Amino acid sequence: MKRSALFLSVVVMACPTPQPTDVVLDPPTAGFQLAPATFDVPMGIESQRCYFYEVPSDVPIFVNKFQIAQNPGTHHMNIFRVRTIKALSGANGDVVAEGECWKSGNWSDWPLVVNSQLSDPNDHGDLQPGHTEWDMPSEVAMRFEPHEMLMLQTHYVNATTQKTPLQAKVLVNFNTVDAASVKNEVGTAFATKYIRICSGDNDKYFETTCKISSAEPVTIIGANSHFHSRGTKFTISVMDPEASSSPPPFYTSTVWHDPPMEWGLNIPVPVGGGFRYRCEYEAPAASCGNPDDSCCYTFGGKVETQEHCNAFVYFYPKTRDVGCF
Questions:
Q1: Is the dihedral of CA 245, 248, 253, 259 positive or negative?
Q2: Residue 82 to residues 79, 141, 192: CA-CA distances in angstroms?
Q3: Which residues pair with 185 in a beta bridge?
Q4: Strands (DSSP E) found in 38-148
Q5: Distances from the Cα of 244 to the Cα of 96, 118, 209, 216, 247, angstroms
Q6: Measuring CA to CA, how many Å separate 151 from each of 54, 92, 111, 175?
Q7: Residues 6+ apart with CB under 8 A from 83
Q8: Burial, 203: exposed, middle or buried (Cβ in 10 Å; 0-12, 13-18, 19+)?
């Protein structure tokens, strides 16, 4: 008799891997939200886009809190006040993708509003992943004029140094307070230094100062730094023109891709003073930035092949719109 074998076939159904979801942020109860459209960042791509928005108010408004949410993969998010128009501009709701949005000379006199690089789901404290909040001190706020034009710039990277696991997305809340409650206006300083780091450079650094006020003392209440993957250390300290030496840094970052946002500072700056900032770099001998320039990494926004040395500082009372280049 021919025997037939009996085989039991077992099919194991694998549970689907949870997929990441876009960040969400409810609009503020008092104020307004900037919510650019999401966009894809294919593998091997760096994308930078500039979105233009008009402040939706017929009267001056005062903002004392920012809430920011970003999907993983962000390299930076900066908001500027639009001033001199060169080759970059837009009406309310317009977006300029790539092209002129990469050329920093276009916003050389556009005052900083707020910035953030935070999107790391493992570095969010008590907030949701990818979220950060800045509550300003009591009785201080940032003023915005009726229908003032703002530009939100978002930069996402899906390449060697950084990855974007899903769409690019950013949301920003401007939370307002009654003008009668504001005693001091918040000012900002955006400082950047042109640099050059070449393959094999170790312990390379650049250091410079940025003056905030010539007539009255101010208080620094926030700071952040920005460089790319060759950066190893970024420090910011008070610059006192009467001091014989610089004090210890009040800000230090050794993490280039997710530098700390120091929102709770209370740093006094004397009359005529400002801040000093220092950027340190190392470039492996086998690395190459610009092959037409001895493989050096020079100033520019591209994460893979260029470098930055940017400081963002927030203070009160506002003395002027500070830009140091």
A1: negative
A2: 9, 19, 18
A3: 141
A4: 45-54, 61-70, 74-81, 95-97, 112-116, 131-135, 140-144
A5: 47, 36, 15, 20, 10
A6: 9, 10, 10, 18
A7: 109, 110, 111
A8: exposed
Q: Fold for domain 31-181?
A: Jelly Rolls (2.60.120)
- Tell me the CB-side half-sphere exposure of residue 20, using CA atoms within 13 A: 17
Give which of 82, 24, 20, 78 is closest to 55, Cα–Cα.
Answer: 82
Nearest CA-CA partner of 196 in 108, 105, 279? 279
Nearest of 140, 141, 143, 123 to residue 132 by alpha carbon: 123
The rounded distance, in Å, linking the Cα atoms of 142 and 169 is: 25
Tell me which residue has tokens 């300290």: 237
The answer to whether the peptide bond before residue 121 is cis (omega within 30 degrees of 0) is no
C-beta of residue 212 within 8 angstroms of C-beta of residue 241: no
User: Does residue 114 contact residue 66 with C-beta atoms inside 8 Å?
Assistant: yes
CB 203 within 8 A of CB 283: no
pLDDT value at residue 5: 45
* Distance (Å, whole) CA 120 – CA 127: 12
Residue 175: what residue type?
N
Structure tokens at 178: 């009654």
Determine the Cα–Cα distance for residues 205 and 207; give it in Å rounded to an integer. 7
Task: Give 244-279 pLDDT, tens digit per residue.
Answer: 888 999 999 999 888 989 999 999 999 999 999 999
The structure tokens listed for 79 are: 């908001």
The pLDDT of residue 209 is above 70: yes
Element (H, E) at 224: strand 218-226
pLDDT tens, 19-55? 568 899 999 999 999 999 999 988 888 999 999 999 9
CA torsion 302→303→306→311, rounded to 10°? 100
Domain covering 186-324 in this structure, CATH number: 2.60.120.230
